[in-house]
Fold each of these.
Amino acid sequence: MIPAQTQTPLPDIIGDLLGFGTEMGPGETFIASFIGAALVGTLMLTMTALAGPWAKRKITAAFTDRYAVNRIGPAGLLIIVADAVRLLSKELIVPEGVDRPAWDLAPIVIASSALLGFAVIPMGNGIHLADPEAGLVYVFAVASIASVGLVMAGYASNNKFSMLGGLRAVAQNLAYEIPLVLIAASVVLFAGSLQMSEIVAAQAETLVSLGGVAIPSWYVFVNPFAFVLFMVANLMEVGRNPFDIPEAPTEIVAGYQTEYSSAYFVLIYLGEFIHIFLGGAIIATLFLGGPAGPVLPGILWFIIKIWAVFLFTQWARSALPRLRIDQLIEVGWKGMLVLALANLVLTAVIVGVIA
Amino acid sequence: MSLEEPKATDVGEAPDGTVDYAELEALLGDAVIGREEHVNAPAFVVRPDEVQEALGALREEAGFDYCSCVTAQEYEDRYESIYHLKKYDDPTQEVGVVVPTTRDEPISQSGEAVYRTADWHEREAYDLVGIEYADHPDLRRILLPETWQGHPLGKDYNPEKPQVVPFRENANPLEPDQRGDGAESDTMFINIGPHHPATHGVLHVETVLDGEQIADVEPDIGYLHRCEEQMCQQSTYRHQIMPYPDRWDYVSAGILNEWAYARAAEDMADIEVPEYAQVIRTMSAELCRIASHMLALGTFALDVFGDFTAVFQYAFRDREVVQDILEDLTGQRLMFNYLRLGGVAWDIPEPREEFFEKVRDFLDGLPKKTQEYHNLITSNEIFQLRCVNTGELPPEVAKQYGATGPVARGSGVDIDLRRDDPYGYYEELDWDVITEDGCDNYSRVLVRMREVEESAKIIEQCVDLLEEWPEEERTIQANVPRTLKPDPDTEIYRGVEAAKGELGIYMRSDGTDKPARFKIRSPCFCNLHTLREMTEGEYIPDLIASLGSLDIVLGEVDR
């Protein structure tokens, strides 16, 4: 029914391959986990590399009747190499009066926090680093660390535009994080577990059978309302249009990242894209059945789902005007929060009465 | 308009809608010490210490609510400020107020208390010519740096003298970084520009923020000052001035600008333009207006949407078509240099049918594209949330600041020189003046979008006319003397409806083939002055949106 979904975590598989045996010592566990994490991290960073310098440009160009990069390599793909060399070879300008080491740490915090989230995401074909019982809580917890990074970057840059960007990031963070968790909680009510593998497994059951085609009980079908809400809240979380307020190029230049150049800029940029992908991964896991899907192997389905969410963010970027900060706060507190609560209560009633 | 109470006629307004200057002179009483005849309208010479009184009377009693321009100049024996006054209801009713001051003590009373717009105009007069205005609230240089030595348009100015200013005296715009009422202050000073993604050129807006809200804004202009007036004063009427107007509002409004100079010079030298040339002028000018409004729409969307999004690209794509047509007609895409005194440079390119077909294709496709813009921009809820009721400019304030063009019409001020002070072929054609009563950013965008449709109507009628025009009557150029030397002391102020509003030219002749004074009344300059009124108490994004909705081009603001 659902293709190869092994319950063995990835480090154990790697431990097996390395011949560590079933009972690994602390050192062996560390080595196996480290290799597993490196694999997952590399996969995500490769996707980011593809998305940032190439896919984003191509997608935006398609929306705006242009060609975008097409000079270097097939379909312009080698622009990734060229851009990487270009960005990394630039001078790292450290402005006067920046608050070190906060200024240096911020890009690392932003980039790594999103990467941490992938530790508990089941990606299919046994690619699943860890499966703690509170997996969902862990994902939201580490994803929120990025906000700390944004504030650090904004505050430490000694630039008023950065400062405004940092303050906006905090305000936005407070406004979206609560609805986001509440909507996720409604999924937890359905699945009855915070464990990622359990949530995915709960979506494997057949919801209805239409003409011999079994529709699985993915929560996007079970509760489309929650899905739409979560998509919007996710846009806020990753700070894409119409909610790219902490950056807002036309208003506050580039917000918290105004003063960053070279490798630091790459890290922040990277962090943003990994964040988008983490958002996509959470959506895939909570609402789209994780790695489930016909014919293709699970990991491919998982990547397709992540990219679908990425495409959505880029679509919104090309088509929607940006909200004003006070309007965003209003949408967050007066709109999203109320709807998310209503959704939670409704789900509780349905689950309580029917199940 | 018809719902308004019938207004009592203003003092000095004859029953047939013309100005009775004798009555005006009686109104001004002792303040008047003489009268001058300018080509556009008579002007009263007023004592320098009675300026406020005279202007006040003209504004309150005689209904001259529009101070179009303030021109300053220096003669051998005196300085002179000229206030060009008009009425928003009927801009053909004009009067000038000439204020002479001695060369030893060039102090004249400020008109700022009567017309807010005089604030910036007088600062410019002080900056470039050197007249000082008593009671002016803030008499600083406006175009040149604070440390500039001398007044470049004055007679004593020595351009050879290097502007050596010690570094410590050179005003650093980034220096007063922490303004406010000391350490306890809740406000934050921030420099938006001169290098900022959304200032449409090199504009520097000194902003004081209270949190995210604007406590005060002060546009700092002059970064793009290129001495356009002086360059025109050193060029001959006949040929050398015409290329310059293209460089004022340089985003494809070239022919509209050229027309401003052409109209003023033709009226000054009494040149009759052939009808055929007028139709071509009208058509090409409206093409320019479409191109300019498309750009305004695209950049405004850029400011509100926040990125180089689809809307910006679409607007540019459509503008490109207009540019191609203009290139076919004029041979240029940006600096057209197409009008000549007494006509245009050349006829429609051969084969004519092909050109007309191209124009018609564009016009036929336009309604669909406009609909696309409405779907994508104006009917978008987020866009409306951002633009409706932000950047409000009440009509009374707009008039005080001398706002014109789409900015005034977006505030419900019904003024359009194409209709109110007809020139070219506009009078013979069927089109409407667009106004919106919202007074906000949204209205200004809407006005521009609807004006594009009106311009398309005008172009279509022009193409019809041009196609039918008998071949033997296609005169593109009147007989104009090779060298143009208007009579000494001829003075004229004339405006046309450029893309951004009234673009006026003041010229004074001294009998040579070059103007003794050439003054440009830039619509962007006056419109930008309203920024503070529009943005106080609003948020930073609204400031950016308001700036975008003003559609300023710094080349025209700074000249």
Amino acid sequence: MTEAPTLPNYRYVSRKRRTKEDRRFITGRGKFVADVFVPGMKHVAVLPSPHPRANILSIDSSAAMALPGVHYVLTGDELAAETNSLFHGLDLPNVVWHPLAVGMTRYAGEWVAAVVADSRYIAEDAAELIEVEYESLPAAVDSEKMIDEDQPLVHPAHGSNVLFRKTWEWGPVKDDFASMPHTVSYRARWGRSSTVPIETFGVVAKWDEITEIMDVWASIQMPQYQDQIASALRMPMNNVRVHNDVDVGGSYGVKRGIKHTILVSYLAKRLGFPVRFIEDRLDNMSGGDAHGPDRIFDITMAFDDDGVIRSMKIRALDDVGAYPGRAPLQLGKPMTALCGPYRVNSIEYEAISVTSNKTGQVPVRGFGQSPTNFAIETGLERVAKYLGLDRVEVRARNLVRKDEFPWKIPPGSLYDSGDFHAVLESAIKTSDWDDLIARRDALRAEGKLAGVGITTCLEPGGGNNIFEYLFNPKLEITTFVESVLIKVEPTGAITAVMCTTTSGQGHETMVSTIAGEELERDPDTIRVVHGDSLEALPTRSPVASRMTIVLGTATSNAAREIKAKMITIAAHDLGVEKDQIEYADGEFSVRGQPERKLLWGDVCHIAHKQFHRMPPGHELGLQAYSVQQVPGAGQLPNEKNEVPLYPCFSFQAHVPLVEIDPDTGKVKIHDYYIAHDCGTAINPDIVRGMIIGGVAHGVGAALYEKFEYDPDGQLLAGTFVDYLLPSAHEIPPVTDIEHCTPSPMTSLGQKGSGEGGYLGAPAAVASAVNDALSPYDIEINELPIRARDIEAALYDKMK
Amino acid sequence: MSEMEITLNVNGRNRTVSVPPRMTLVDCLRDMLRLTGTHVGCEHGICGACSVMFDGEPVRSCLMFAVQAEGHKITTVEGLADDDGKISDLQDSFWECHAMQCGYCTPGMLVASQALLAENPNPDDNEIREAISGNLCRCTGYQQIVEAVKMTAQRRRAVRS
């Protein structure tokens, strides 16, 4: 359900339109990485360590090498000698990271050796023939013990399992706490889950000795991919060609296979033939370094008698596993909306990142924001309960008001725009809150457990990653660009070149819709291609709900420049001033004299082929590019560590109704309502899909998904039988109401929507489950809340 | 390892290939016949990305050996369009409803939905959810897929009436 936006009368934007990408997917014509066949390509299988922590005493690969069809067995020592350590977000000179273990294994599943063979089947056979002698060691598993207790060191050279620990204070926290009559303190825990795309990570690499180009096809979604490949392989960046036209089978942040890429590209160069590695599911779950945040929050909120929150103290302890990569920075992004959509005056934030003998963590949808939103919302529930206030009312009292934008929060973000109260009210109205409560109570009267949840939250979009600087001053990066090149052919056909990969976001649809809107040409006739990394303009990749904001604005800029150039050419040819030209529907006419006109194709023809009709000194052809800075970004933090972070803020309110089977603890979500405002929706079907898909993802994190470890550090969830992904049975029908408060920061008022429902659903589902458990005075603030957790809590109460 | 020659009827054509006995059907379809529309997601029969029609029934092609398919009739996503390349009403409804994002689970979803509609031309939402519950999608939350299947059934009813 979508409310008609009060917007300019767009002809393509915000209209129901079919997407560009879907046509190839419904016909089986997508080009995913496993569909890339390079002649002569050989296949890799990896050997995982069975030990969470062990010294590698010896590796004997002679039996594997003797197997017919085997070409090579690579071990960590050779690879480490020939390539550089992989990139970390933090400044950690003594935490060395290579694709294969060197001397020591740091988690169960870490790759110890790689086999190259004629087929994956033979490579797996050979991997089983490799004999590794290990000296098993005790592992560091419990993140809470890393700070004060004597634990085995994951990276002995680093000297500690604490990778980062820092406290920031924004505003008068001490005074604000002293001035408030009430505080609540609580713990909220986010379990180790991830996005787990249905396509695993894969990569194909081919080295050409003559051209000295490393061609890479990968299922990737990562900033600075080619930079990192070149750096690790010790070659100039223009020797690396990443093919961005590979369709990525889902990512939601996690497709960061830099170690896979270095492994495969090194082998391709070393062996002289193309090499491919496609993870199988166990490779992906245990050794792929694609786990998500694993976080403990300890929070205190200070508030008045009305439940208005004045100040917060937040301590977040995150376990990034054995190799940090960019993962610790996921404690930084939530600074962007650290107090959620609420008018909080001051915040103390302590961020602690620890390493452990577990599979590595990577960025997950929202880059740490979803766990933080869950933790904040838990606090809103606590405040309401403490004062005996209505949960909706407490949120309404704390939300930033419509007339207060731009609103600055203590860490420095400027919330750009919104109408939070209207969206909340819309969620309450659409869900028919009172009726929902009546249905809940009717279920309770039947002896069931039932609950209604409520959550409001923000989705920061745009990806100004200056928070990285607060974690590592060596990352003095104040821009996060995205680019597009638009060219119009002599015949009038339009092609746009974007510069990165797509993993389901519909970028081709977005770019063609915006270009079509700006140029008044049918988006279906506009081709959008993904330039490879040697051809492409600067990109930081489709992360941080940023492409509609940054690439979308770049597209508007480039299209407007094309239009201006065409008007200049038309004016010259028609013998009038530029401001005398009116453009509509592909026709350039003289104002007041509609018969004096040039058609779209005429101007294109002149620009490309008729130098004698061109304005003197005007560039030939019709092309324009835009390299777009993140709106509002570009500065370092001030002396108070304040800095405007992401530029655009989407808002959402979630209302689910759940029923819990009192015998089994199984949760069934009956209804799910969400009211959502992401400014101008470029394609409503895509936005709706993102929202509902994000909710599904959040339901998984709230109720089912966890990379469980035993106390010794063995992963207990390496398949889809023990790591449970929600099916169509578990995901309820979702009613989505769209609002539109255009952003002043972007070309058409668009904001981000890619992280959408995932940022609010875990908190909303937890709110509903805890409402259901409230008659038993049970509260569970640890995700996922699995059936067995509920059953155990009920059992404890009953006995 | 010695190979076996087998003949499969794939998308209406007999295809003869030589495969190792342990090669799975999905690897045979993808790597030998280059029908890459069928995808590999978990290789343990949970996700449904590798679903194909096998003698008219949906099966997981990761859980079968290619040699077990000798002489059988297989339809993959590439075989859903008609002989002139016109996409089916089911495919068209998936497009119309944007019943996908990344497109990776889509071929399996199409196969599961086609099997449902062949058996039950008027499924309700619960029956659709039941029919696709063996196929995992991480992008959509399933709703637009359910809507696409429903739209196909409605279109077929409109054609019949």
